[in-house]
Amino acid sequence: MIRTNSVQRHTRTATGAIGVLIAAATLTACGSGPARQGAAAVVDGQRITIATVEAKVSALRDEVAAQGGGPRTERAGLTKRAVSDLVLNRVVDRALADRRLDVSAGEIAQARDSDAKLLGGEGELRRELLLKQGVADEDTDAFYRQQLGIHKLAAADGKDARTTEGDAIVRKALAEAGTELKVVVNPRYGAWDPRQVALVDAPTDWLPRRTAAS
Q1: Which residues contact 172 (CB under 8 A, 6 or more apart)?
Q2: Nearest in space to 145 (alpha carbons), one of 95, 189, 184
Q3: 210, exposed or middle or buried, with CB in 10 Å at 0-12, 13-18, 19+?
Q4: Is a pLDDT exceeding 50 seen at residue 1?
Q5: How far apart, in Å, are the Cα atoms of 173 and each of 87, 93, 122, 130, 149?
Q6: Nearest to 30 by CA among 185, 184, 206
Q7: Hey, which end of the chain has fewer CB within 10 Å, N or C?
Q8: Can you spell out the DSSP letters for 19-33?
Q9: Which of 99, 80, 90, 75 shows the shortest CA–CA distance to 189?
Q10: 3 state SS of 94
């Protein structure tokens, strides 16, 4: 997260829950076979397409190049992070819905405006997010929605997501949501572990084994 006082109030969960949850970039896959053809992941029966992931990565790389530097731009790492973020967005949304919570467009706009004012304008905010958080301009609202959502999951139980207690609440909520959503990740990107609430390395033997008879 951007380390400002405003973000600490609104969205600074990256150093707590989010920082742990998506440290790889950012559920046990149901079934050991590959995800549907053309899909990077399947969440609650809905495909996250490889094309969507590649477009997200390309946008980030282009914006970073235009700025002359920033986060690691090696495509494989960025692709894995993109898949992780897209899956986590849906898991957070489900966890919020299960608790009859939501993050409104107004809350996102308020948090963005507050951070932009502290940083000296919307342009500076976008640059900070891009170069320090690896968030492309088109993903800014999704970034705030995810972070504010995680904060709300902890706050619903009277906890701060940055604390040990709050982190545990968030992890439990997201693990339950991920299991309900039956997340399946294409093994080329890894596998989603609901207990860790993270994308992990896929088993090397995910392909069916041949038997002696076959």
Answers
A1: none
A2: 95
A3: exposed
A4: no
A5: 15, 11, 33, 28, 11
A6: 184
A7: C
A8: HHHTTT-----SSSS
A9: 80
A10: helix
Cα separation, 12 vs 161, in Å, equals 9
DSSP secondary structure, 110-151, as one string: HHHHHHHHHHTSHHHHHHHIIIII---GGGHHHHHHHHHHHH
The tens digit of pLDDT for each residue in 13-40 reads: 333 333 333 332 232 233 334 445 789 9
Determine the angle formed by the axes of helices 105-119 and 140-155, rounding to 10 degrees.
Answer: 110
The H or E element that residue 193 is part of is strand 191-193
Give me the half-sphere count of Cα atoms (radius 13 Å) on the Cβ side of residue 145: 22
Question: pTM to 2 decimals?
Answer: 0.77
Residue of 132 and 101 predicted with greater confidence: 101
What topology does CATH give the domain 5-200?
Answer: Triger factor/SurA peptide-binding fold (1.10.4030)
- The three-state secondary structure class of 47 is strand
Task: Please tell me which residue, 16 or 88, carries the higher pLDDT value.
Answer: 88
56 residue type, one letter: K
